[in-house]
Design goal:
The complex is a heterodimer of chains A (about 240) and B (about 270). Chain A is an alpha/beta fold and about 240 residues long. Chain A has helices spanning about 40-50, 85-95, 100-110, 125-140, 160, 170-180, 190-195, 230-235, and strands spanning about 1-15, 15-30, 35-40, 60-65, 145, 185, 200-205, 210. In chain A, the strands form two sheets. A five-stranded mixed sheet of chain A has the order 5-6-3-7-8, with helices on both faces. The N and C termini of chain A lie far apart (about 40 Å). By secondary structure, chain B is mostly helical. Chain B has one domain. In chain B, about 65% of the residues lie in helices and about 0% in strands. The longest helix of chain B has 30 residues, at about 115-145. The chains are: A alpha/beta (about 240), B mainly alpha (about 270).
Chain lengths: ~240, ~270
């Protein structure tokens, strides 16, 4: 369970302030697959970073009665000068996981050969995201905090076009396996994806948070691209 | 459909105070091991911190030997040991009190379980280990080649002095880090201030030999008391007239408390 108690977050940019959350109190189950829906991508990212503990609220508190992941898709604590292997071992130690097992799993799925022993800074940027996903899902958490819903293969692209995504099938399998055993909070603007992969929805709109059991309720949120995912997947096949 | 991935780990279920303590130990240990790995890859960076006192003490030893002042010490039989005990303590404090803004980093450059304070603790542990090794080697060399009094006769006083320096250095480092956050030129002022503060701590002279007024003002500097306490471990006849361990303990605890409070109240500002 993740308890948000009178939580407020204000974002300041260009002398303007915007309420991402205004004094919200809500209990979010940590053992369910939750679609984080909302009109602003930035606000959803900020909520994920708040839940992860990367940033702090302006008021209120977050009680985490579960072990939550770092934002999946980011590797905020990886040192650029150290090798990927050393960084993976570090993050495994940080989260109290078995170091050998974690490194072995990442090595098996992130098939980059000797590049695993090269500095993380040398890894092309496009490879960092999948690495983050593999590292995160290799570690055991009660709930995974995703930064978006792009874990599935990119719609509209054939396998050969995906190029570097050789390991995407293994990563996807790991994601599916974690989906069975852990909770997830997945920001998405696709209600089709939400219906297919998530059990409940968490709607963030105008500083308010609301849990919804029925995805038909979320149609009022702007910018939701209903059914897009299903259509794209059909065309991919 | 239940999928199985071989080697997939599960979340341990035990929750409690000791589990939390063990988890914290794991985080500190992880940060220490990473720092060790960094040092292994770039050994020069680790050496630089301990190189300064070695160079200074070496140069002073050569200079005083050339000037035939090796035995001309305010206390004890060796001027080299007297200067070494002072410089060792001085550079230990400077190293601890250094503003390490870059190393402590912004929250977005850390995993959520890593806190700024954990990094600060790790830096203190590493600096202490470095200086403990330097102390054993450096005073060992002085013991073998210069004077047998380089072996402390009261280890407890040496340790108490080092603990006081650690507390003063850590506290002042955290305070300086906070000031630097709001007034960036402080990083340059504090470098000069730290060296000045330690220079007036009786490195080359005994404060007891100065006029009473000057002695009073210099004894307001807590670093003087820390260095004096450290030196009492080496010299049985070290004059303790101006040494006030209560005053030192007050400043050591005060510095740590203020440092910790400022760290907490400015933790949000670090996000910006």
């Amino acid at each position: 369970m993740i308890i948000l108690d009178q939580l407020s977050k204000v974002v300041r940019s260009d002398n303007k302030t915007r309420n991402v959350l205004s004094s919200q109190t809500i209990e979010i189950p940590s053992n369910r697959r939750i679609a984080l829906l909302g009109s602003s991508e930035d606000d959803k990212r900020i909520l994920i970073e708040l839940l992860a503990g990367l940033i702090m609220p302006d008021a209120g508190r977050i009680v985490r009665k579960a072990q939550l992941s770092f934002p999946v898709g980011q590797l905020p604590g990886f040192s650029k000068e150290l090798s990927i292997r050393v960084n993976v071992a570090h993050v495994a130690r940080l989260y109290g996981a078995n170091v050998g097992q974690t490194v072995k799993m990442v090595e098996r799925i992130f098939t980059v050969g000797k590049a695993l022993d090269r500095p993380y800074g040398d890894l092309p940027r496009k490879m960092r995201r999948p690495l983050s996903q593999i590292v995160a899902f290799s570690l055991p958490f009660d709930a995974y905090l995703l930064t978006d819903d792009k874990l599935r293969p990119e719609p509209g692209k054939s396998k050969s076009e995906r190029g570097e995504d050789d390991f995407s099938a293994s990563c996807s399998a790991l994601f599916q396996a974690r989906m069975q055993t852990s909770g997830m909070i997945i920001p998405t603007d696709d209600s089709g994806f939400a219906r297919e992969h998530c059990e409940i929805g968490l709607v963030l709109d105008n500083g308010r948070l609301k849990l919804v059991d029925d995805f038909s309720e979320v149609s009022e949120v702007p910018r939701l691209k209903r059914q897009r995912h299903r259509r794209d997947d059909d065309s991919d096949d | 459909m239940q999928r199985n991935i071989s080697g997939m780990q599960t979340v341990p279920r035990s929750i409690g105070f000791f589990t939390a303590l063990r988890r914290y130990g794991q985080i500190i240990s992880a940060l220490l091991q990473r720092e060790q790995e960094r040092r292994r890859q770039a050994p020069l960076e680790g050496i630089l911190d301990v190189l300064e006192p070695v160079v200074f003490i070496g140069l002073m030893s050569i200079l005083w030997t050339v000037m035939s002042r090796r035995n001309n010490s305010p206390v004890g039989d060796s001027a080299i040991l007297f200067v070494a005990t002072g410089f060792y303590a001085k550079f230990f404090w400077i190293c601890l009190a250094k503003v390490r803004k870059g190393e402590l980093g912004s929250p977005r450059k850390r995993f959520p379980v890593e806190r700024r304070l954990d990094y600060a603790f790790v830096l203190v542990i590493i600096t202490t280990i470095d200086y403990a090794i330097l102390g054993f080697v450096g005073f060992g060399i002085i013991y073998i080649f210069v004077t047998p009094t380089a072996l402390p006769y009261d280890f407890l006083a040496v340790i108490e002095g080092m603990v006081a320096i650690i507390m003063l250095g850590f506290g002042w480092g955290m305070i300086s880090l906070t000031i630097t956050r709001f007034f960036w030129p402080w990083v340059y002022f504090t470098a000069v201030f730290n060296r000045g503060l330690s220079l007036f701590s009786g490195l080359f002279f005994l404060i007891e030999t100065l006029p009473p007024d000057l002695r009073y003002y210099l004894s307001l500097n807590p670093m003087y008391h820390a260095i004096a306490l450290f030196r009492t471990g080496f010299y049985s006849n070290y004059p303790k007239g101006s040494l006030d361990t209560t005053y030192l303990a007050f400043w050591a605890i005060f510095a740590v408390l203020i440092g910790l409070v400022l760290e907490r109240v400015t933790v949000r500002a670090e996000e910006e």
